[in-house]
Amino acid sequence: MMTLLLLASQAQPSFSCSSSSTLIDLKNCNSLKTLHQLHAVSIKTNHINDPLIAAEILRFSAISFVRDVHYALQVFDQISQPNIFYWNTLIRAFSQSDEASHHAVILYAQLLHSEPHAPNRYTFPSLLKACARIPAIEEGKQIHCHAIKLGFFADRFVLTNLARMYALCGRIEDARRSVQESRLLPGSEANTVIHNILVDGYCRLGMISNAAQVFDEMNFKAVIS
């Protein structure tokens, strides 16, 4: 906290003290150094309690092109009552890190014990990506069950990331079962993506004939197939 207050005292004089101007400055932010200064100013002016400002600070530090997930976690810990957007942003940030993907699963466990918030359809794709990176098949299976229980299994982003998680964890037949589920969704996009995932999964396992069979089953093929 003392470091942030020191940054606030050194912040560029062009930074405004109004809440709306601070938000504009944050949206135009292009470096972590500037973010740290704006974060310090928001604390000094008490604008950190503005949900829009807190969300923008967390978003930039978590998932921007210069993200710092550890700083994002510090920001998150300073938010007294984080809503599901904050949770999802931080889970997404950790799911994109090869070194820290397991923290996404840890955060999810904490989310499940927080009140009154509950996971939504945006929570599960990031979680499944994290499980695929680790890899963590047992945690992925539990998250699969949670998605079904909460009614999000029919979401195409959940379903495609579920198939990818199973495929990258070497459970290719579990991934293949997702094809049957994807046929229940409107449109063919999810079905095509899952077929591509299966082709890639079989190739990774050296099961070329199975990959060719899945490829032949596809209703739509493109250059990326």
Distance between the termini: 51 Å
Radius of gyration: 21 Å
Order of helices and strands: HHHHHHHHHHHHH
Fraction of residues in β-strands? under 5%
How many separate domains make up the residues? 3
Number of helices: 13
User: What characteristic shape results from the CA principal axes?
Assistant: elongated
Folded structure, characterized:
- The longest helix has 16 residues.
- By secondary structure, this protein is mainly alpha-helical.
- Helix 10 packs parallel to helix 12 and helix 11 packs antiparallel against helix 12.
- It is built from 13 helices and no strands.
- It folds into three domains: 74 residues, no CATH class; 73 residues, no CATH class; 72 residues.
What distinguishing features does this structure have?
mainly alpha; PPR_At4g14850-like_plant; single chain; Pentatricopeptide repeat-containing protein; 225 residues; repeat
In short:
By secondary structure, this protein is mainly α. Helix content is about 65%, strand content about 0%. It has helices spanning about 1-10, 20-25, 30-45, 50-65, 70-75, 85-95, 100-110, 125-135, 135-150, 155-170, 170-180, 190-205, 210-215.
